[in-house]
Design a protein that fits this description.
The protein is α/β, with parallel strands linked by helices. The protein is built from 4 helices and 3 strands, in the order E-H-H-E-H-H-E.
């Protein structure tokens, strides 16, 4: 299974989260968008992720990004992963 690693130490805002997802999927300077709709598109496959599925994301560390993003937006981000059937592993 393909695993994309998101560097949580680089996340201080929701915009940073999207930037780091883009970097994890498409390399330095990678870009797929900067909102929840773009994230959902990425998680459905394409835009750098396999269209046939079989991938996951690991966010480490996750506690700083969670605090920086704020609970309402954080909960919504998690829901987007769940709704699209993509695992997001949260590690310290």
């Amino acid at each position: 299974m393909k695993t994309y690693r998101i560097d949580g130490s680089r996340i201080g805002s929701a915009a940073d989260f999207y930037t780091e997802v883009g970097r994890a999927v498409n390399g330095d300077g990678g870009y797929f968008g900067s909102n929840l709709d773009a994230l959902a598109d990425c998680l459905r496959g394409g835009f750098g992720t396999p269209e046939e599925g079989g991938f996951r994301f690991v966010l480490a560390p996750y506690q700083g990004p969670r605090a920086a993003i704020g609970e309402p937006v954080w909960s919504t981000l998690l829901r987007v992963f769940v709704d699209n059937g993509v695992d997001l592993w949260l590690k310290n």
